[in-house]
Amino acid sequence: MVPIQNLYYLLCYAWNRLPAHGEWQRVDTSTFHRPLELLTHMLLIGTRRLLQQGLPLGYAEREDELSELRGRVLLTPTIARDLLRQGRAVCAYDELGPNTPFNTLLAGTLEVLARTRHLPTSLRQEVRRVRARFPEEIEPAPFTRHQLRTVRRLRLPGPEGFLLNLCDLIYRTALPEPDTEGRTRFYDFRRDEVLMAQIFERFVRNFFRLEQRRYRVLSETISWQAQADDAADLDLLPSMITDTTLETPERKIILDTKYYTAAFKPHYDRQRLISPHLYQLYAYLQNQPAPANQQLEGVLLYPAATHTADLRYTLGGFPVRVVTIDLNQPWSGIAADLLALVA
After folding, report:
1. N or C: which end of the chain has fewer CB within 10 A?
2. CA-CA distances (angstroms) from residue 69 to 79, 84, 96, 110, 252?
3. What single string gives the DSSP state of each residue in 63-91?
4. Where do the structural domains in the chain lie, given as residue ranges?
């Protein structure tokens, strides 16, 4: 597992929302023994703030037996209950209130956390106190992937989007089935290399978007410099999408992040770079139509775990750097090292 001292900052940058003041700045990751404790603490901070400002309202569909028509009349239950002779009908209508998909998901997540044994008793008690501050009409939604996707489609703004990312990560670290007492078990998501690779990639890209102004930062699709007898055959070529591209009129850096515990792998009695990673970056550089006056270069960036490296090559006329960054150092050191990569 890659050692990480500032998981909090990694997540904030990965989700493109770094809280800048107040209680957020007092988050000390060293006091949390498990990542779930940190995620829960962050969720509580954001939820308290949302409750102070007032939970967002939205329209939710309700079904009621009414004496006055409202919205749509549901004929099947109305006839089945023989309501028409009573001057009543079952109606479906939209009502403005706090019982929105996001609020119900947030309430459902808090209820799951309040029951798990993976949190200290004091933190579970605080979760229950915050959950008790929700209005009674908010019905906690099931803690499911379907519910998360439903809320994700709403494209929530800043604070709500940040809390949704926390709920999503908490869900992704939950084991498939709860225990016999209805408590959900969780695993340490830092051991999930696929998930951490996604977080690491977004962290690096958003860090450069937020912390420097010299380069335009994007993830771009590179077209193959290829020809075919049948133009349709070109569609079969694999996509080339960069993790991070930093560009000025004079310089372009293709930065590929790789979340591996080592930038090398053993080959007989020697250590060598991981060849598919180097081939991929080289393909990006070879197929990049850069202007004549623009310097094109590539960087392979790994977290430093078992080895550190800072290797420089010229491949096919392009400067290429293979470098590791220590994520287990104070945040100021991580920020300085990243900025030095493109200085």
Report:
1. C
2. 15, 11, 18, 37, 64
3. EEEESS--SEE-HHHHHHTT-GGGT-EEE
4. 7-54+101-191, 58-97, 194-341
Distance of CA 254 to the CA centre of its chain: 22
266 CB burial (10 A radius; 0-12, 13-18, 19+): exposed
> What is the chain's mean pLDDT, rounded?
87
Amino acid symbol at 65: E
Count, residues in the chain: 343
Residue 133's pLDDT band (cuts 50, 70, 90): very high
Cα separation, 306 vs 308, in Å, equals 7
pTM: 0.83
Confidence band for 241, pLDDT divided at 50, 70 and 90: very high
Output b/e per residue, 105-144; b: 16+ Cβ within 10 A: bbbbbbbbbbbbebbeeebbebbeebbeebeeebebbebe
CA dihedral (283, 286, 287, 291) positive or negative: positive
List CB contacts of 211: < 8 A, sequence separation 6 or more.
Answer: 335, 338, 339
∠ CA 114-120-125, nearest 5°, is: 45
CATH topology of domain 194-341: Trna Endonuclease; Chain: A, domain 1 (3.40.1350)
